[in-house]
Amino acid sequence: MVSFTNRSIVSIRDMSQDDLTKVVDTTELVKRGELSGFLNGKTVATLFFEPSTRTRLSFESAVFKSGGSVFGIANPKASSQSKGESFADSIRTVSGYCDVMVIRHPVEGAARMASELSGTPVINAGDGANQHPTQTFLDLFTIKESIGRLDNLKIGMMGDLKYGRTVHSLTDALAMFNNELTFISPPSLQMPGHILKELDDADISYRIISDLEEAGECNLDILYVTRIQKERFGDPQEYAKVAGVYRITQNTINMLGKDVRVMHPLPRVDEIAEEVDSMPNAIYFTQAHNGIPTRQALLGLVTGGLN
Amino acid sequence: MTRAYKVYSIENGTVIDHIPTPLALKVVRILGLENEGIMTIGIGFNSEKHPCGKDILKIENRVLSYEETDKIALIAPDATINIIKNGEVVEKRQITLPSEVRDILSCPNPNCATNKLGARRHFQLENKDSVTYRCFYCERATVVNADMLVN
Q1: Residue A141: what pLDDT?
Q2: Complex ipTM, two decimals?
Q3: Which residue in chain B is spatially nearest to A114 when comparing CA positions?
Q4: Distance (Å, rounded) from C-alpha A9 to C-alpha A112?
Q5: A106 chain-B contacts, CB cut-off 8 A
Q6: Cis omega before residue A267 (within 30°)?
Q7: What is the pTM of this model?
Q8: Does B137 lie at the interface with A, CB-CB under 8 angstroms?
Q9: Nearest residue of chain B to residue A91 (CA atoms)
């Protein structure tokens, strides 16, 4: 049986299919209200070495809803780091103050390093461009909640697939469940070769397209949209052209099929038109709210309050 | 005709041949042998295998462990290892890429915890054919090259 007690959640790469299923199933029970008070008497430290208000508030809300207490830093300028204390010393010290540590850090690998130094489990809330596993867990839970399963689905990912950490981790996770993937992006922002190679090695079928209209033939169950960042383009005109093409409107939804669900890690800029928000296909706000039960479930599992 | 030895033979120790020129000194560094005993290094011999020449390294009175010789595969996968005892070759050793490498390779990602926060350098083998290793911290996979060796 899968056990998460005292285990750090650093990367989707550490997870097996059973691990992912366990977290998704536990999240379902938490969301239904069947599990509560499992963080009673537990203290959670949230160490945000770079600001991320949404993720931090979501973790803090998850702690309160499960009966735990939370303290932490939201701004590294206000911490001992600004006095020159090393990251390693900060982690060693704070690990004695809490039962679990949630860390966000701009340096890639910071959460892994913390998990080796800390006597208490560490949950990675984002380490630079590397991993943000709780986002992937909430994405998986949202797919399962919306469609009822995690396997044999047709899933499209659209936008900045080259630099988007969210879509890389989600691809790793979905590959464990035998899904058919479609990558829709401008040629300059395609899924990196090393991820495609992993899919080839795992015998996962995928296709790469740059024309959103072509996705209409894919009968997608899910379209996962990500933002294309302006700074990726040297020429503003080039950006404007791309941003206009990869935009979801009511017409796009009708073209993709009436059952397609649209997800987005938020915040969005204009890649999904507001007219889509009221359609039953739009599940991105539910997805954002699912961050709470997902983080509750993970905190409960690693502290042993849930098993 | 007597053969003129350019690199003298040794009675006991380890001979590493077929190192592509000019990597002999990097092999010494990988093995951490800079300050250890007598070593003979030959650089730039003619070689059919290596069009730019080969280097030879002879380490006297020291039999390298498998763990040590496997590290050589990181930059010289075609190198051959002979263990010499009393002037005779007693073992011709194959080298294979180590599954994990600590300390000797630096991560090329400047934003990696090993470069920014002092985490101990640590790579795991990702692909043998292309000699690709994945950094344990930032999780980036990189094809190993001699520039990654820690100075």
Answers
A1: 98
A2: 0.90
A3: B119
A4: 9
A5: 111
A6: yes
A7: 0.90
A8: yes
A9: B117
